[in-house]
């Protein structure tokens, strides 16, 4: 009997030890505090430089580290890396072509607590857009060369550029543009002749200055202007064929709008305003749908959508697939609109019906947040940030 009791006691003791060990490993009884390596998120203006520290939170006896920071060099670049609390904090390499910067430091005097690893100076090179700031820990060790485990919290940097204002409306009538700086009824703030009756009007930020300017599409040719005024095209080229529907969007998040075409349910998008083959092509929609372009999720890149008989079908990627967002707004025969009406960095929808605009601040069914008359039934509605402010 005593043997049985002793064996049971030994197994019970082993069981308790396993439970305690499990709790410790799971962060329960006696578990060490977790270390986190983090870089914050920030919003900056175009061409603005900002210092963003990489910080190790709740770390013990940090003596050496090597980390890498990756980013989109079309949006932001690393100008320099300043020393952190270890005293070194020097950049091993800065590669603004690939968007990878490696940073390393060591010290004979270990640091504990919340320790700044390095101060990274970033400069916004795009006029608008968002880049992830992804941290990868290559080495992280204490003064006895033991590896220190750590969680990672990466950040983002968003460039608002000059064009941080709301999109406002305009109309195109028989070769003339009539643009307004407010979403309301009233007279045009700017009017001029560009193109002729039968041309398809275009709007885009062709040079990345934060202001939208006009263009026209005529029988497979684009004629783009960098100013909202009469005159000759600043850029002209052939892309598409007669009957294609022209598109404009920032497909790669570089802050500049480029062209595309929609043909019988297929999108053909280009990353340069020039003749040539599509950089991206895919099927989305069917013949007869009205193509849409907008930054639906505020990530700085425009993606596609379609409007079909009063329903919107929007995608967050430029690829074939199902809609990420679909809802009813308007009726068959309405002209769909897309714009950032409230300056929140996200494009939302609207419709134009018989000379009236009905705009929504959310991509959902519901009543218009803003409605007003501007133009007449036969006008072509326009949307753009004409002032860039």
Oligomer state of the chains in this structure: single chain
Beta-strand percent range: over 45%
First-last Cα distance: 89 Å
The helix fraction, in percent, is: under 10%
Give the helices and strands as they follow along the chain.
Answer: HEEEEEEEEEEEEEEEEEEEEEEEEEEEEE
> Radius of gyration, Cα only, in angstroms?
28 Å
Mean of pLDDT: 88
Number of helices: 1
The figure for the number of domains is 2
Structural class: mainly beta
As residue ranges, the low-confidence spans are 1-31
Largest sheet: 9 strands, mixed
What is the number of strand segments? 29
Can you tell me the overall shape?
elongated
Short description:
With 389 residues, the protein is mostly beta strands. The chain contains 1 helix and 29 strands.
Provide the descriptors you would attach to this structure in a database record.
389 residues, 2 domains, Immunoglobulin-like, 4-stranded antiparallel sheet, disordered N terminus, 9-stranded mixed sheet, 6% helix
Walkthrough of the structure:
The protein is mainly beta and 389 residues long. It has two domains: 36-159, Immunoglobulin-like, CATH 2.60.40.680; 168-384. 6% of the residues lie in helices and 48% in strands. The strands form six sheets. Strands 1, 2, 3, 4, 5, 6, 7, 8 and 9 form a nine-stranded mixed sheet that branches. Strands 12-11-10-29 form a four-stranded antiparallel sheet, with no helix packed on it. Strands 13-14-15-16 form a four-stranded antiparallel sheet, with no helix packed on it. Mean pLDDT is 88; it is low at 1-31.
